[in-house]
Design goal:
GO terms for molecular function: hydrolase activity, acting on glycosyl bonds. The chain is mainly alpha-helical. The protein has six helices and three strands, in the order E-H-H-E-H-E-H-H-H. Strands 1-2-3 form a three-stranded parallel sheet.
């Protein structure tokens, strides 16, 4: 059935990524965990007609915030943002993610959807963690993570094949 929609949201990846950077990749019980779950999800991309038009995200208005209060060194945050901005698809950053908003679904939608502060300046931890990657995204052009330019697609703002 052709719905006419050019993109779908990759909820599977959104459910996997929050735990992927915390879990060990070599589980003793034989279950897939950690980054291996991301690998399995991406290995199933053959199910999509056009992987460049999949909307990918870390969090949204119905999911717990990606940033966690216990991530004091921002390691998980940095890895998650770098991954979402450098993998296939169209990255979506939910407001507040760039400012390390925290909150879980268990705390209620009001915590997840709280107002942006009116006095904010700059771009917060997102720009400080990944100035080259996020800076390229904001300027509207592709950002390659490797110097030879063969890194995975990253951060094209609104410019997709076949569009003007």
């Amino acid at each position: 059935m052709d719905t006419g929609l050019k993109t779908v949201m990759d909820f599977n990846l959104a459910f996997i990524v929050p735990d992927a950077f915390n879990e060990a990749n070599d589980p003793s019980d034989g279950a897939s965990k950690g980054l291996f779950n991301i690998y399995v999800s991406l290995a199933n991309d053959f199910l999509y007609e056009d992987t460049e038009n999949i909307l990918i995200f870390l969090d949204n208005h119905d999911l717990s915030r990606f940033a966690r209060k216990d991530d004091s060194g921002l390691d998980k945050y940095r890895q998650g943002v770098a991954f979402i901005l450098s993998t296939r698809g169209i990255p979506q950053i939910y407001y507040g993610t760039e400012l390390l908003f925290t909150g879980t679904k268990n705390e209620g939608d009001g915590i997840i959807r709280k107002d942006m502060p009116g006095d904010r300046t700059g771009d917060g931890p997102l720009l400080r963690c990944h100035p080259r990657l996020y800076g390229g995204y904001r300027r509207g052009h592709r950002t390659d993570l490797l110097p030879d330019g063969e890194a995975s697609r990253a951060c094209e703002r609104g410019v997709y094949p076949g569009t003007a």
